[in-house]
Structure formats: structure tokens, C-alpha cells
Design a protein that fits this description.
The chain is α+β, with helices and mostly antiparallel strands. A six-stranded mixed β-sheet has the order 2-1-6-5-4-3. A six-stranded mixed β-sheet has the order 8-7-15-14-11-10, with helices on one face. A three-stranded antiparallel β-sheet has the order 9-12-13. A hairpin with a 2-residue loop joins β5 and β6. It is globular. The chain starts with a helix and ends with a helix. The model has no long low-confidence stretch (mean pLDDT 94).
Length: 330
Amino acid sequence: MSDFQDAKAVVRAYQAAVDSATEDTVAAELSAHTSADYLWRGMHPFDIRNGANEVAEVFWAPLKTALTSLTRREDIFLAGRNQMDNFQSIWVVSMGHFMGLHDAPWLGIPATRKMAFLRYAEFSKVENGKITETALFCDIPHLMVQAGVNPFPPQTAAHLVQPGPVTHTGIMNAAQDPAEGEKTLAVINAMINDLGIWQSGLPLVEELARTWNDDMIWWGPTGIGATYTIARYAEQHAGPFRASFTNRTGTGHLSRLAEGEFGGFFGWPNFTATATGGFMGFPATGKPGEFRVVDIYRRGGEKLSENWVFIDLLHWLKDQGLDVLGRLNA
């Protein structure tokens, strides 16, 4: 647990420095808290970047220029050992919203001069007092909708500025009981294993009830939306999603961890699948596509109760032949 607390302290120092930096100083602050071989993964159009200077140039400085008075409104903060490398590395996870005044265009998204919220989930690998890897997923279409340039047809579930956990216990600055984290990771793994029985004939609602509480909340990405209860989640996302894709590969993650009642993972990609049915109002293409996904969970008792989901839909759509940001900037 002391290792977790040390890693949290590294990330807290990084957050304080980068969050308070200006577009002109963010590269120096980022360099001070990351390793020389720093590897950064971001959603389309950022993808993989190397080194603090490149990350600052392509992501942080433009974002801080566009969203002035930028601040981090955090809802979840945890640390854990990564199951995907046999629990060798320690990662720290932060999730919430970046909030600012949308005073200049960003990625072609027009400025509104109003408050704007950008959903984020950030995974940081900590080694020897430095951050060596980051995965920073932002719901860019969420910002597009706020600016009046919604790229999607009407979605099946609700579009919201998404709150944090209903329990308000997601920010774990203090050490947690290791047994609780092990329990959370076990139910996450059981849920992932159940994804392999899509073709078993078990009704979807019954499958979900194995690892989810009935009053679950699924906080999905813009383009899909949020949904509440197992039955409505099956109707408004899980069922339509499964009907839309075939040839789904196995689940692959780069980081999967838990602490206390919270846990999560990300993949690059998590899986690929072929679009053989319409999805989010778009016709089937018959093309395979990558799904880069972050899932963060809250366990309530023996099962999962809340799930915050980030899917790089702009990357998936580009795989299908639709460059949303290119069209916006044409």
C-alpha cells in the first residue's frame, strides 16, 4: 500500500504542475514529472506521442489555449498493480472533467465563450518517481455537442454531463483495504469472462445479472449515451451493440487494476469487430474496426453498480471511412 501512496503522490505533483501551467510553460512542467522516454496515448487525432515536448505541443498547449481558466474536476482517483503484466507495474487512474471557458477553437470545434466540460480518464504508469506512460482518453464528441456541432444521429441513451459515483467515494487519496481491491478486480474479471458467452444462448439480461446489480448505471460515451438498470442497458446499448458486430476478437488490455471498490482498464485496442449491422444510426460497412476503450467501475456489494465508459468513436469511424474531424475542418 505504501507503493500505491508513493505513486499517488507522484501523480498529484504532476497534476498540480500541469494543471496550473500555461500554454507556454506546460512543456517544462510536463518534462519535470515524466521520464525521458515518456510514452503518451490519446484519442484520435492524437494517437501515440513520445516525450513531454511533443505531448505538450500537440495536446496540452492547444487545449489550454482553447479552454481558458482550465481546471480539473476529479471524480475518481485510485492506484493499483497491473494485472496485465502479472501485477508488476503500478498505475494511477484519474477520471472526471476538464472544465474551462471555450474561448478559442480546438480541433476545429468552434468556440462558444461559455463553460465547457471535457470528460477525461487518465491512466499513469509510475516508475522510479516519474510517470513513464500515460493513456489520456477524452470524450471529444461531448465537447462538439456542447458547441452545437453534434456529429452523430440521435443516440439510443441519454446525453449528460456525467456525475461521479453516487457514493461520492471515488477519490481515494488514503490507502484502502487490499482485500476490497481484490474483490473488485475479481468481479471485473468475471464480467470480462462473461463477454465470451455471447453465442451461448443465455438471455442477455440473465448474463448481465451474473456480475451487475439490477440498478446499475452505464455512463457511456457521446454518441451512445448513459442508461440505467440492467433491462434498459440491455435495450439501449448492449443488445444493439452485439447485434451490430461480428467477428469480435478476444479482449486485450494494457492496464487492468483495482483499489477499494473501484477499478478499470484500457486497451489499445481492446478488441476489433466487423460492422455487419447498423450502429449509432450509421449503416453497416462490413469493415473491421478497432475499439480503443476505457472502462472504470464501482462495485456495490458483490456486483458492479456503475461503469464510466470512454470509446474512441472518432478513431472507429475513421476506420469505417468517415473522418469526422476532417469533415468539420473542410
